[in-house]
Specification:
Length: about 240
């Protein structure tokens, strides 16, 4: 199954009050394995970047000034997303901004039925634990030492690793196949090189020859006071 793990960076917390998405990073997974295929883009929000938001992700007005607006990249992004489930951390936040931007430029919003929230998964698996991405990466031993500031693609990569842990761990898919699959595998094995005709060889003689018996007798005769030659020996 194809899934997209994604993260966004924004100018604030609420698109309804004018906040905009300024970055999106998407990681493709097939069968819970990262394929190496990804999508990443920055967007000009057409509004000033609040200092508090810039401190989180480091995206300044100057950096974003020459980036395309979301509408210019919308079709490209939608083509990458396809109809796959979309996985995000605190997914309602990211879905809210994604759908606001899509509606703003006249595109159809993404169905909420496609949403997979890793916060909800983590809450079930780790009740009472801290649920931030940083805390969960520490819990599951995911290296985040290179994460100085938030970044959509970097956070999506970390989230992809976390999602694997939350849905079966790094060894997902390595379980033993069922008997039917094993039988099928054996049925498809190429046995053309297997030798099926038995080769019969004549039996070798195992009794000592007359010459061998004579040499053995000469050898035994050289042994002084052999126990088996003594009278009354049971040997």
């Amino acid at each position: 199954m194809r899934e997209i793990i994604f993260d966004t960076e924004t100018t604030g917390f609420d698109p309804a009050t004018g906040d905009r998405m300024v970055e999106i990073g998407c990681i493709e997974m097939i069968g819970r394995v990262m394929t190496g295929n990804h999508y990443h883009a920055y967007f000009n929000p057409l509004r000033p970047m609040p200092a508090a938001a810039e401190q989180v992700h480091g995206l300044s007005d100057r950096f974003l000034s020459d980036k395309p607006v979301f509408a210019e990249k919308a079709d490209e992004l939608l083509a990458f997303l396809g109809d796959s489930p979309l996985v995000a951390h605190n997914a309602s936040f990211d879905f809210g901004f994604l759908n606001h931007e899509l509606q703003y430029c006249g595109r159809t919003p993404v169905s909420m039925d496609r949403m997979v929230d890793t916060v909800a998964l983590a809450r079930v698996k780790n009740p009472g634990a801290k649920l931030s991405l940083d805390a969960l990466c520490s819990r599951y031993g995911i290296d985040r030492s290179h994460r100085v500031k938030h970044g959509a693609l970097l956070d999506a990569e970390l989230l992809a690793q976390l999602y694997i842990e939350l849905t079966g761990g790094r060894q997902i898919g390595l379980g033993l196949a069922d008997n039917d699959m094993l039988d099928k595998g054996f049925d498809q094995t190429d046995n053309s090189s297997v030798q099926t005709t038995k080769i019969f060889r004549p039996a070798r003689a195992h009794s000592a020859s007359t010459e061998e018996l004579a040499r053995h007798a000469d050898f035994v005769a050289k042994i002084k006071d052999a126990l088996w030659l003594q009278t009354g020996s049971s040997l």
